[in-house]
Amino acid sequence: MSFFNNIQFVHPWFFLILPLIIGGFAWLYMRRNTYFPRLSMSTLQGVGDVSTLRSKMGILTPILRFASLIALTIAMARPQAILQEEEVKAEGIDIVLVMDLSSSMLAQDFKPDRLWVSKAVAGDFVKGRKYDRIGLVAFAGEAYTQAPLTTDHSVILDFLNPEAGLQCGRLTDGTAIGMGLATAVNRLEDSKAKSKVVILLTDGENNTGYVKPLSAAEIARKFNVKVYTIGVGTIGDAYAPVTRTASGQFRFGISKVNIDEKLLNEISTMTQGKYFRATNAESLQQIYASIDKLEKTEIDVSILKRYKDKFFPFALIGLLCLFLEMILKYTLLRSIP
Which uninterrupted H or E stretch holds 237? Predict the structure, then answer.
């Protein structure tokens, strides 16, 4: 028998006593007039409003007795906390996510925009890679490491929070695909993992940066880094930022979607990866699901369990209630036969 998933009871059959306790108190309540006979009076006019603290506290003794029996029953059932430890032997995979932060990622062909959906879907992917080290690189007209390789996925998920985290406009605008890929490969260069993977997501064409995309792909191949590339954007036109005001606000208009699919495909082919095109949120989810299947981690998990008894608080509560009931019964609430 389990409670809150990490509490179990060693002797759960003691709970069979609970219906007897509840039934017994219900029976005594219904027959209370037998034990506490009433005095019939022709009128209560003289004493009708008389009420003392002692009379009000009379209900405490049965309540304390009831609470005592319930707590002692739970204690006899012997609750235990299960302290679970996992020994994990995994064929480690190091993954670096490379996210485009150029202004075009605010295009609204994905709802609410491409960046929001890209972060949300990438976050779901990270949640499913429990035993892998994951890093995060951001790029626009330049590139930087947002988070190095780590097993603390909460850090990565903070940056991939759709409502916060990575934002457009913080870097020089542009699309430096080569810079983003080179930065990711640099994070994986010294990795000892059996498999090293880069997932590069962009919605445009390489138009800036001092590292050419194919040169970065050649470096990736040299270090046995597999690159999966994802082109994000609808086919045709999209409502996207076209200019920026002096105050830093983006102005939107209809813009043609231009993704260099030939380049992205070539990068993936060179590194034994694969190129994908996402035209909506659903297809992007399917793409990450496909990559998840292609890059499965081999896991050997040994689960060790330790137990810690938790009956003492219940036993203490039961005895305290019983002790308090006896004190009240033979002092303040004492009845004279």
Answer: strand 237-244
